[in-house]
Structure formats: C-alpha cells, structure tokens
UniProtKB/TrEMBL annotation:
In the central section; belongs to the 3-hydroxyacyl-CoA dehydrogenase family. Belongs to the enoyl-CoA hydratase/isomerase family. It catalyses: a (3S)-3-hydroxyacyl-CoA + NAD(+) = a 3-oxoacyl-CoA + NADH + H(+). InterPro entries: 3-OHacyl-CoA_DH_CS, 3-OHacyl-CoA_DH_NAD-bd, 3HC_DH_C, 6-PGluconate_DH-like_C_sf, ClpP/crotonase-like_dom_sf, Enoyl-CoA_hyd/isom_CS, Enoyl-CoA_hydra/iso, FA_oxidation_alpha_subunit. Keywords: Fatty acid metabolism, Isomerase, Lipid degradation, Lipid metabolism, Lyase, Multifunctional enzyme, NAD, Oxidoreductase. It comes from the Bacteria. Its EC number is 4.2.1.17. Pathway: Lipid metabolism; fatty acid beta-oxidation. This is enoyl-CoA hydratase. Residues 316-494 form the 3-hydroxyacyl-CoA dehydrogenase NAD binding domain. Residues 496-591, 627-710 form the 3-hydroxyacyl-CoA dehydrogenase C-terminal domain. The keyword tRNA-binding does not apply.
Length: 715
C-alpha cells in the first residue's frame, strides 16, 4: 500500500499504481477539502514510490466523482480575496502534482464525472470512458466557473470553441459525443472500463502512444494566432451573452478567462482561472443558484425520510383521460409503474392514449428511446371504462374536471372500488382538500397531488396534506411522485395551496397596473428582462384565461381582504369575449402556428380595444422599477404569509416550489431569497410606499420585526 486515506488509496503492483477514489461511509465520491488534501498526499507518495511506471485512476463507487462538495462553498466564499486565491492555488497544485508525476497516467471513467470530477480526469494523460458514463462541467448552473483547471486543460485538449460550448452550457455529455470531440480517448462497455484503461496504460508505457506529447499539450499555450483568437472569443462572448440574456455572468466570465489565458502556459493560466472563479463566486446569482442546489438536496433528504413509511406503489390509476390524465399516465408508464386510465367515454380514453403516445414518440424521434421500449411503455397504460380492475391499485389520481360536485361524486365512487389501503389523491389546482374529503369514508387515505401542466415537462408536484390525511398516505404519494422523476413538496391545505396562492398576487399586481393604464406588452417586456420566462400577459394566455379566472374566484373566497377584486379586470373582459388565450387562438395576443406547428404570438389590436374598457383614465407610462415593485412585492408578502402560517415547512421548499412550478427566475433564487437580496427593510419600505394599492402590499407584523432586526429568511 503506497497510500491509504479515508477518501482514496494507492496500491502498487508490477510498476502500475492504482489510485482509487472510494470515500468511506459515502454513497458517492466528491471533492471536499479532505479529498483534495488526501489527493495531494497520495501524489507526494507516488512521487517517492520505487519502480513507478504508470498510474491508473479508478473509482470504487458506481460513479467516478460527482464534483465538488458544494456544502463547503459557504465558508470558502467568505474568505478574504488573497486567502481565497491562495486556497485555489493550493488545490490546483494538487492536480498539477498528478499531471507532473513523470509517468503516463490514465483515468477509467465510470458513471458520472462532473465538475471537479472531470477536471481530475483531465489532469491525467488519457481517459477511457464507460459506454453509459457522462462527463461535463455543470459549474455555470451554480453561477460559477470550473476552478480545478477546466478552463485551462480542456481548451488545450479539444480546442477553444468546443471547450466554450461544453463549459458555458453546463451540459452532461454522453460517451459517443465525448469520444468524437476528443475529450476521451476510448469508449468501452461498462464492465470493461478498468481493463481497457490498464491496457491503454500498458501501451503508453511501451511507447505505442506519445504520452509525453499529450502531457505537454495541456501545459502549453492554446496556440491560436491573434486573428483566430479574436474571431473565436469575441464571437463566443457575444453568443453566450445573448443566450444568458445578461442574467447569468458565469458563462461570459468563463469565455473571458479562456481568452485571457490563451497565450499563457499552465500555471499562469490557472491563476487567471482563479481570478475568474473569484469574480463570479460572490455574485448574487451564484448565491441564488448554489442556494437552489442546496434546497434541492434538503428536499431529497426529507423525501428519503418519507420513503421509510411509504407503501409500495406497484399499480397506479388515473381518473380522467384528457390531456392531464394522459400526461400522468405517460409519466407513470415511462418510469415503469403500470397505470390504469379510466374515463366514461371511449373518445376521451383515446385522447389520453394519444397524449401518452405523442410523448413516447418524441422520445423515439430524439433518440432517447427505441420503438421496442416505446411499445413496452404504452403497454403499461391500460384504458378502461369501469372500476372493475381497481381492487389492486395502490394509488389513484383523480384528474377530472375542476368542479367540486363532479370531483366529490367521482371520489365517492372510487373509494367504493378500491381496497381499504389504497391512497386516493386529487389533482386539483385549488379546491380545498378538506372539502373534497368531507364525504369520504376513509379521509386518512385522501390528499392532494397537484401536477403542473404540461405534466411531462414540469418537475414540481405539490403533495397537499389535508387535516385528516395520514402521514403514511402523504409519504406514499411523495414516494410515488419521486418515482415519477418529479420533485414533490409537501404543503398544508389552504385556498390555492402554495404555488398558486403566491403566484396570483403577482397577477393581481399585473391587473392593477393594466387598469391604471400601463401597456400589458410593456409589462411583459419588463418582467421578462427581470428574468421570468414569459411576462404575466403571455403567461395568462398560456395558462388559459378561464383557468386563471377560476383560481382567482377560489382565492377571492379564501382571502377576501386582499384578493377579492373591486372592479372588472382585463382578465374578465377577455373571458367575456371568449379570448381564453392560446387554447382559443387569442387572448392578450393573437396566436398562429409557426413552421414547427407551435403557437406564435403576435400583436392584436382587438386585445387593446378590450383592455381599454378597464382603463377609464387612459394609458400612462410607468418606470421599470415601479413595474417590478408592484409585481413582486405582493408575491413576496404572500410567500411570507405562507411560511408564517406553516403552509410549507421551510423557505427552501417554498422557493423551490416557485422555481420549479411557475418558472420564478432561478438566478434570483425564489421569492424569499429575492427578499433577502433586497433586504427586508427595503421590501417593507417599498411596500409602504404602495400602501394605497391595498392589503396585498401590507407586510406582515413578522416581516416588520425581521426588517427592524436585520433578519433574513436564509441564515
């Protein structure tokens, strides 16, 4: 044994060292401070090892290395600049020590090698990749850039343009793409990856491959002349800035640092990378995006806890076979859980099957699935007009019309048809779970399971716990949602639940602006610049005016002090005119199909004529700051109310719900993270400045207390 630590070890036999990452008591390998330290110690031990001819780097886990330990970022990012950069250099000295061993080195990549994990692979001379493995640089998705030499070694290995694409998109890349690019040297079957790496190493030792030239290539300047560099990097910066809309600084910073270091050799280039890392590490965007990652980890830990008491779901059922029911059936079948799809009409069943088939077909056309797997998936969906096969169902999802009377009738029928232990969940978007449970014999087995539309694309599921819902029923639905590949968040029952309750004050702010004479298209533009994927008018069209009006009515009944409209809104006149949005071809905008068959919005003067009915004082201009404040402050305040009332357990889950459920700008981190960024004192001050707009702009007593004490939602 050359070296043995808790994170990795090195053995030596016949001149070949096996540097093996295998963190004790951990399910995966990651680069925390202890692992970097042990790697440095291992490199020093290898340097002194007698008879060393080559090194193969392997993993004792199902994946290679998933990346850096992000939980350590908080303390690291608080360090003074000089201390921070010194730490970066010390870490890179460790990777350099592996690269400078003076013998050929090969990494056997199994599973995932991401971020620092892939940078470890780049420190060796060659890489052999398992067929199912994936590699890449996800750092920009956390608002940062590679910091262990990724912006230095990778461009020198695959070329600047290719490196910029991989680093700036943050994508995970399959083995075939990696081999084509030259990111790896060989791709083999999963069970052959270590053997193939050893074979390549033997050939390098024998002189069949010029490992020294490869090693030197990664340490040299990039090798672009002045014209080539200007064309490559200036084009890249413009494209990346356009794609990131100026909202994500990390991708642009990555290009700048690759460009600045293009004429430098390794050590100077690494110093340049360190400066770039520091430049983005303390940005609000990095804080928000890293926060979302940690929020996601928290939710996964909580959901894992639910799994301890959840019942197994081996057979599911969905009631209502429309687009929503078909989408749920598709998702369940895709993830391997057989599902019965029931409706009262053959044509509805066919619509549900067509919806599922459409999504399976898209996977086939994109190369994500072959026709045999598609057939197997469709075979897991069993259409039926009766309850005859419901006796063995573990979970039933009711997804019929959003009408309490119809839902109650269907739920009562379903309860009679299923076994005593079956869990029944309503996919309602706003109807009270306690109200729906009132007529059931086993309310402990009933709760809400709110999918967001379209089901296949939206990652969030609200699991709504009623007063009588059992912990076991909640845990079962949480586990089933996770099995479907969704992120379930448990919320307590209230009008609108969590996401819609917080979203609609944002819409109410929009309606008040429009009624005050502000152009809805201008509001859309401002809020899209703020970071929303679509502005409130466009979003209303996509959601559907009738759907929005229904939710508004539920919220008005639940919170009449602040959500009951005092006058007709632009939404009301749209509904009266039969302009429901995309579904009818017109709303705030007019919709026509583009060349790909997707709805394309265009300006419609008829919409302006309708909106003018609710603008008695005519049109007026509003500054960007006023629009953002009047849209976002009601959302922040309602989010605070939900947290204070215990509708959701943590600010982490609340913010993740908004990001995953309605597209809250990720780089702002969610409503409460955004409030922290502004400072609660500022939020309260600006809310008071808009006090004449009503109770939606009235901060809670707890918000005022937090503002006075300088408190934040995230410590």
């Amino acid at each position: 044994m050359v070296y043995e630590g808790s994170k990795l070890s090195v053995t030596l036999a016949d001149g070949i060292a096996d540097l093996r990452f295998d963190a004790a008591d951990e399910s995966v390998n990651k680069f925390d401070a202890a692992t970097v330290r042990e790697l440095g110690e291992a490199a020093a031990a290898l340097k002194q090892a007698d008879g060393l001819q080559g090194v193969v780097v392997t993993s004792g886990k199902p994946v290679f290395i998933v990346g850096a330990d992000i939980t350590e970022f908080g303390e690291m990012f608080k360090q003074p600049d000089d201390e921070f950069l010194a730490g970066m250099k010390a870490s890179n000295d460790v990777f350099n020590a592996i690269e400078d061993l003076g013998v050929p080195t090969v990494t056997a990549i199994n599973g995932l090698a991401l971020g620092g994990g892939f940078e470890m692979c780049l420190a060796t001379d060659y890489r052999v990749m398992a067929q199912s493995a994936q590699i890449g640089f996800p750092e920009v998705k956390l608002g940062i850039i590679p910091g262990f030499g990724g912006t230095v070694r990778f461009p020198r290995l695959v070329g600047a343009d290719n490196a910029v694409e991989w680093i700036c998109t943050g994508s995970q890349n399959r083995a075939d793409a990696a081999l084509k690019l030259g990111a790896v040297d060989a791709v083999v079957a999963d069970d052959q990856v270590e053997a193939a790496a050893r074979d390549l190493l033997a050939k390098a030792i024998a002189g069949d491959f010029d490992w020294q030239a490869r090693n030197a290539q990664k340490k040299a300047a990039l090798g672009l002349n002045q014209v080539e560099a200007m064309m490559s990097f200036e084009t890249a910066k413009g494209y990346v800035a356009q794609q990131s809309k100026g909202q994500y600084p990390a991708p642009v910073e990555a290009v700048k640092r690759i460009q600045a270091a293009a004429g430098m050799t390794r050590d100077d280039a690494l110093a340049e990378e360190g400066k770039g890392f520091l430049a983005v590490a303390r940005t609000p965007e990095a804080d928000a995006l890293i926060g979302l990652f940690l929020n996601d980890q928290l939710i996964k830990r909580k959901n894992k806890g639910h799994g301890k008491i959840a019942r197994d779901v081996n057979q599911a059922a969905v009631l209502g076979a429309g687009i929503m029911g078909g989408g749920i059936a598709y998702q369940s079948a895709l993830k391997g859980v057989p599902i019965t799809m029931k409706d009262i009409a053959e044509n509805a069943l066919q619509q549900g099957l067509d919806e599922a088939a459409k999504h399976f077909d898209k996977r086939v056309s994109r190369g994500k699935m072959d026709t045999a797997k598609m057939a197997a998936g469709m075979g897991r969906i069993r259409p039926t007009l009766s309850y005859a096969e419901f006796g063995n169902v573990d979970v039933v999802i009711e997804a019929v019309t959003e009408n309490p009377k119809i839902k109650k009738s269907v739920l009562a029928e379903t309860e009679e048809a299923v076994g005593e232990n079956a869990v029944i969940a309503s996919n309602t978007s706003s109807i009270s779970i306690d109200d729906l449970a009132a007529g059931l014999k086993r309310p402990a087995n009933f709760l809400g399971m709110h999918f967001f539309n379209p089901v296949h694309a939206m990652p969030l599921v609200e699991v709504v716990k009623g007063d009588k819902s059992s912990d076991e029923a909640v845990a079962t639905v949480v586990a089933y949602a996770a099995k479907l590949g969704k992120t379930p968040i448990v919320v307590n029952n209230c009008p609108g639940f969590l996401v819609n309750r917080i979203l609609f004050p944002y819409f109410f702010g929009f309606q008040a602006l429009v009624s005050g004479g502000v152009d809805f298209a201008r509001i859309d533009k401002v809020m899209e610049t703020f970071g929303w994927p679509m502005g409130p008018a466009y979003l209303s069209d996509v959601v559907g005016m009738d759907t929005s009006q229904h939710v508004e009515e539920v919220l008005a009944a639940g919170y009449p002090d602040r959500m009951k409209a005092q006058s007709q809104s632009s939404l009301d006149v749209m509904v009266e005119a039969g302009r429901y949005g995309q579904k009818t071809g017109s709303g705030y905008y007019k919709y026509e199909q583009d060349k790909k068959g997707k709805p394309k919005k265009t300006v419609d003067e008829a919409a302006y004529e309708l909106v003018a009915k609710v603008q008695p004082d005519g049109s007026r201009e509003a500054g960007d700051d006023e629009i953002v404040e009047r849209m976002m402050i009601p959302m922040i305040i309602e989010a605070a109310r939900c947290l204070e009332e215990g509708i959701v357990a943590t600010p982490n889950e609340l913010d993740m719900g908004l990001v995953l459920g309605v597209g809250f700008p990720p780089f702002r981190g969610g409503a409460l993270k955004y409030a922290d960024r502004l400072g609660l004192a500022h939020v309260v001050e600006r809310a008071d400045a808009h006090a004449e707009l009503g109770k939606l702009y009235e901060p809670t007593a707890r918000m005022r207390e937090m503002a006075a004490n300088g408190e934040q939602y995230y410590s």
